[in-house]
Fold this protein.
Amino acid sequence: MNKYIGFFILLVSILLFACKSKKETPSRTERKTTSKELQTLSKKLNISVTKSDNLKLYNYVSDWLGTPHKLGSCTKSAIDCSCFIQGLVEHVYNQKLPRTAAEMHKQSKKVSTGSLKEGDLVFFKINASKISHVGLYLKQGWFAHVSTTKGVMINNLEEEYYQKHLVSCGRR
């Protein structure tokens, strides 16, 4: 009988030792972004990116930068504005948006340009009587979108072209 009790104690000890929690170590993806990486990202996007910015957002935009526009397309080889914004919002903020700029506009809470925050949507009427273009606000007037001629890019709301066509801003 003592032989079984000893075996049982040994078995329980082994199981308890095996279940001991490991010391948490940061994964490779959780490493700190270096100042050189921030410089590279800033140069590529042509705006200042700092440690306090949403790096997941800026890296996503950077990865898509220059992808050509194609109406109705939703791939890395060609994309339209609403699909780009839909994918960006889902990837960065884990939120789902409708497929079209007009539907995004209907579902958003309207905000003034003076109260824009990172992640807000900016809506435009370009050669159309209804909302036909959408972008995502980054900071300091800068927004990411898909230009029909230059693809995924970053522009500023202060540019005359965008001032002329900006219709509304919305919060998801």
Notes: The helical segments are 2-18, 35-45, 55-64, 81-93, 101-107, 160-165. Strands lie at 74-75, 78-79, 109-111, 121-124, 133-139, 142-147, 151-156, 166-171. Residues 35-171 form a domain with the endopeptidase fold (from Nostoc punctiforme) fold (CATH 3.90.1720.10). The CA atoms of residues 146 and 152 lie 4 Å apart.
